[in-house]
Amino acid sequence: MIQEVEKYLAEAEAFTSNDLGEVEKFRIRFLGKKGILNKLFAEFKSVPAEDKKTYGQMLNKLKRLVSEKVKKLKETIENQSETQSGREDLTKPGYPYKLGAKHPVNLVKNRIVDIFRRIGFNVSEGPEIEDDWHNFSALNLPEYHPARDMQDTFFIQRHPDWLLRTHTSSVQIRYMEKHKPPIRTISPGRVYRNEDISARAHIQFHQVEGLYIDKGVSFADLKQTIMYFTKEMFGKSKVRFRPSYFPFTEPSAEVDIYWGLKTEDDYRITKGTGWLEIMGAGMVDPNVLQNMQIDPEQYSGFAFGMGIERIAMLLYGISDIRMLFENDMRFLEQFKSRF
Ligand code: DAH
C-alpha cells in the first residue's frame, strides 16, 4: 500500500501542463470526490498498525503536493494567457489604484520653492560632491579658518580636495560663476555632516539656500523677503533677527519666528520661549562678491539658508528626524493626501 502511494507521489511530482483542462483533469483525478486521495484515505483502516503513521503522513504529503501544484499551474497559465493575448478582459472590474505619497521633505521643499518663485526667484542646483573652493574657500572660509570646524565634513579619501557638501551655500558660488547680477535664485538640495545620528541630528539632511544680488540691495530687503516667506509658510510674520556670525555674510543673523505659546507642544519645541530659530541669513560678504568678480562697490545682496527637515518636523509634528530617512511605509503613507 505504501508503494502504491509512492507511485502516486512520483506521478504527481512529475505532472506538468500548460493546458487548463489538463490541470483540471489532474485535480479531479486526485482530489475529486471519487478521486485517488479519497480512495486512499478510505483504505486507511486496512493498513497494518505499524505502517499507519507513515501512510498517513504520505497521504497528507500527496494532498499538499497536488493542491499546490494545481494552484501554481493555474496561476502560470492564467498569467501567460493574459500577456500572450496582449489584450485584457475589458469587462473585468478595475483594480483599485494604489496611490503613492510624496515624501514630507519634498512636500516642504516644494512649498518653499513655490513661495520664492512667486517673487521672482528661480531654482538652481549643484553637485553633492563638492570641492574645497565651492564649499569653503570661495565662501570666505580659507584653509585653517576656524569656522570650518563648525561643519563636520566628510572628505573623500582619494581626493583631498573633494568632500560631501556641508551646506547648499556652495550653489551660490556655482551660480555666480555662471550668472551676472541681478541674481535671484534659490537652491534646494541634500547636504552631509559627520554628526552622531540621534532624534535631532542626522548625517544627511536638506537645505534651501537663497541668494539675491543687485544694485542697492539692503538689509531691509532681506527682512521684508523673510517676513513674506514666514507669512506664506507658517502664517506668521513676527520675526526677529539675532546677530550671529557666518563667514560668507556681514552682518549675519539668525532668524527666529514667534511661534507662540498656546499649547504644550509650543512650550516643548520653543523651550518655553515662544521663539523658534528657522534660518541663518545676512548680507553677502564683499569678499565673496570679489571672489566672484562682482564689484562690491556696485552691487550688494543678501543670502539665507534653512534646513528642510526641521521645518517638516515642525509642520507635521514629527519628533524624530530618523523617521524621514527610514522609508517606513507606515510612516510615509500618512502623507498621502498632502500636496
Ligand atoms: N550655510 C549655513 C549653514 O549651513 C546657513 C546659512 C547661513 C546660509 C547664512 C546663508 C547665510 O546663505 O547667509 O548652516
Name of the top-level CATH class of the largest domain? Alpha Beta
Query: Residue share in helices?
Result: 25-40%
What is the end-to-end distance? Answer: 68 Å
Order of helices and strands: HHHHHEEHEEHEEHEEHEHEHH
**Total E-strand runs:** 10
Largest sheet: 7 strands, mixed
Notes on the structure:
This protein has 339 residues and is of the alpha+beta class. The protein has 2 domains: 2-85; 104-335, Bira Bifunctional Protein, Domain 2 (BirA Bifunctional Protein, domain 2, 2-Layer Sandwich), CATH 3.30.930. It contains 12 helices and 10 strands. It has helices spanning 2-14, 20-31, 36-42, 52-85, 104-117, 132-135, 169-178, 219-234, 264-269, 286-291, 308-316, 329-332, and strands at 122-123, 129-131, 155-156, 159-164, 183-192, 204-214, 239-246, 249-258, 275-284, 300-307. The strands form 2 sheets. It has a 7-stranded mixed sheet with strand order 1-5-6-10-9-8-7, with helices on both faces. Strands 2-4-3 form a 3-stranded antiparallel sheet. α2 packs antiparallel against α4 and α5 (104-117) crosses α11. The protein is elongated, with a radius of gyration of 34 Å. 3,4-dihydroxyphenylalanine binds at residues 167, 169, 209, 246, 249, 280-282, 303-305.
